[in-house]
Automatic annotation (TrEMBL):
Bilayer topology: Single-pass membrane protein
Localization per Swiss-Prot or TrEMBL: Membrane
Alphabetic keyword roster: Heme, Iron, Membrane, Metal-binding, Monooxygenase, Oxidoreductase, Signal, Transmembrane, Transmembrane helix
Protein name stated in the entry: Cytochrome P450 71B8
InterPro entries listed in its UniProt record: Cyt_P450 (IPR001128), Cyt_P450_CS (IPR017972), Cyt_P450_E_grp-I (IPR002401), Cyt_P450_sf (IPR036396), Cytochrome_P450_71 (IPR050193)
Matches recorded under Gene3D superfamilies: Cytochrome P450
GO molecular function terms attached to this record: metal ion binding; monooxygenase activity
Family: Belongs to the cytochrome P450 family.
Residue sites binding heme per the record: C441
Statement: the UniProt record of this protein carries the keyword Transmembrane helix: yes
Main localization category: membrane
Range of residues in the leader sequence: 1-18
Species name: Cardamine amara subsp. amara
Length: 500
């Protein structure tokens, strides 16, 4: 008998032996069957949160997929989100290293995309002190109120002529005005090197670049690298990045030129002062890459989520005139009818508006998948083994629509939040617009204040109607986006001054 035939007969025997000798297979989570090499990539559509949603209805709240060679586990229930973000927070709180996130953060010198560790902690502390501390919030109050005045002025002009206004543009200018003045010491309305419109484009382009899947991340070196270069992904992303870098450089140069800074100082000037000096607490040396990394975070994470939330809120209010009426009546009764200006104290008085914002977050979480995490060791969740170096996605879009947590989940009913203790602060895992645990959003308080202030100004001073010839049924609810999911078509409404 030739060796070959011998081998054919013996091969099954080897297989059986080998199977019995190898250690028992760990129980991995279920998931859709993929193809060799590409894994499940062909089963994903235009929007990851919606593709995951559909697949999880079939495969359950702990679901294993493969993006090329990279294992990804998607969690889609309140219970599993809690196990990841609370019980196993420490073992899952790093971020995957990806090509685009590395590029846009100057090789992970930021907070949002950087791997867990001492540098991340120190950067977070520094930015927390300079941008998010209650003291800073107080000292920047005048900026928020000035920007509110500008917003109302702009809307009043449209009201006088009864022309529709693109709310997205108006609210971007409002939000970016606030955030960039706090962080960059500049609003880009009166600036000689860039226009607000270009800033908005650049925010969206940068977000798309960072949020779009790159093949290099999911295939062994060589193959993915090649695909990204052939498809143009590589050059697209790098083009956007070089625009962003030169924009940041302009901001920095501007700071260096005008040494005399006004008080309170902004994040950029504070960090410029620290460059190449050791921080008070010790080890981390701040470099210009850290400065630009943080600017990137502010740019990518600070502006858009708030704008998106306000747009979805105004969209839902327009679709639900009864809710709009109840809300405006509450606001106007509570605040009286002769205010010239909304102040931040007013925000504490309008309870129903808070419910409207919560309901908006539930149905339209701006970052439905939060930001991806990565397991740092093997963990077990609901009996399933999740190996080290698995990418983790929490689908808050699915959780916000889970009939086990919410009655009539598809309906917009702000009253559902009345008699619950559920809040967005990361303690209630059925409702996670800002995430939870170590990696949750550090800009939450600022973000909420901006959203409340923007909406209260819109709703106190103006009545809103659809442009002539348009009815509620014509409002388009399609989505767009990569990291942040926004309303696709602009929301155009006609303001009418309520008090004249
Ligand atoms: C309505 C407004 C906002 C929403 C809904 C929002 C939402 C989020 C979400 C969902 C995450 C990911 C959390 C996770 O992975 O578990 C996040 C992270 C982050 N956000 Fe926000 N955010 C908002 C405003 C802001 C603002 C105003 C800033 C700063 C100017 C900011 C800075 C950040 C940063 C730096 C991170 C990364 C944190 C880390 O990885 O350690 N966000 N945000
Ligand atoms: C909330 O609770 C109060 C008092 O406990 C009750 O009067 C009210 O009807 C409840 N509202 C809703 C929407 O359940
Ligand atoms: C604005 O709407 C309220 C009802 O929500 C109405 O009572 C009021 O007359 C309207 N004001 C104007 C100027 O149309």
């Amino acid at each position: 008998m030739s060796i070959f035939i011998c081998f054919i007969f013996l091969f099954p025997l080897f297989l059986i032996l080998f199977k019995n000798l190898s250690p028992p297979k760990q129980k991995l989570p279920p998931g859709p069957t993929g193809l060799p090499i590409i894994g499940n990539l062909h089963q994903l559509g235009r929007f990851l949160h919606k593709s995951f949603h559909k697949l999880s209805l079939k495969h359950g709240p702990v679901m294993l997929l493969h993006f090329g060679f990279v294992p990804v586990v998607v969690f889609s229930s309140k219970e599993t989100a809690k196990e990841v973000l609370k019980t196993h927070d420490l073992e899952t709180c790093t971020r995957p290293k990806m090509v685009a996130t590395g590029l846009f953060t100057y090789n992970f010198k930021d907070i949002g995309f950087t791997q867990y560790g001492e540098d991340w902690r120190e950067m977070k502390k520094l930015v927390g002190l300079e941008l998010f501390s209650p003291k800073k919030q107080k000292s920047f109050k005048y900026i928020r109120e000035e920007e509110s005045d500008l917003l109302v002025k702009k809307l009043s002009k449209s009201a006088q002529t009864q022309t529709p206004i693109d709310l997205g543009k108006a609210l971007f200018s409002f939000t970016a005005g606030i955030i960039f003045r706090l962080a960059f010491g500049q609003n880009f309305r009166e600036c000689d090197f860039i226009h607000m419109e270009r800033v908005e484009e650049l925010v969206l382009e940068s977000e798309t670049s960072v949020g779009t899947l790159a093949f290099t991340d999911f295939f062994p070196t060589g193959l993915g690298w090649l695909i990204d270069r052939i498809s143009g992904q590589h050059s697209r992303v790098n083009k956007v990045f070089s625009k962003l870098t030169s924009f940041f450089q302009h901001v920095i140069d501007d700071h260096l030129k005008t040494k005399q800074r006004q008080d309170p100082s902004d994040l950029v000037s504070t960090m410029l002062d620290m460059i190449n000096k050791p921080t008070k607490s010790g080890s981390l040396k701040i470099t210009s890459d850290h400065l630009k990394g943080v600017m990137s975070d502010v740019f990518l994470a600070g502006v858009n989520a708030g704008v998106i939330t306000m747009i979805w809120a105004m969209t839902e209010l327009t679709r639900h005139p009864k809710v709009m009426k109840k809300l405006q009546e509450e606001i106007r009764t509570t605040l009286g009818s002769n205010k010239d200006r909304i102040t931040e104290e007013d925000l504490q008085k309008v309870d129903y508006m808070k419910l409207v914002i919560e309901e908006t977050f539930r149905l339209h979480p701006p970052a439905p998948l939060l930001l991806p995490r990565l397991t740092m060791s093997d963990i077990k969740i609901q009996g399933y083994n999740i190996p080290k170096n698995t990418m983790i996605e929490i689908n808050t879009y699915t959780i916000g629509r889970d009939p086990k947590c919410w009655t009539n989940p598809e309906e917009f009913i702000p009253e559902r939040f009345i008699n619950t203790s559920i809040s967005y602060k990361g303690q209630h895992f059925e409702f996670l617009p800002f995430g939870a645990g170590r990696r949750s959003c550090p800009g939450m308080a600022l973000g909420i204040t901006i959203v409340e202030l923007g909406l209260l100004n819109l709703l106190y001073f103006f009545n809103w109607s659809l442009p002539e010839g348009m009815s509620i049924a014509d409002i388009d609810m399609e989505e767009v986006g990569a990291l942040n999911i926004a309303k696709k078509l602009p929301l155009e409404l006609v303001p009418t001054l309520h008090h004249s």
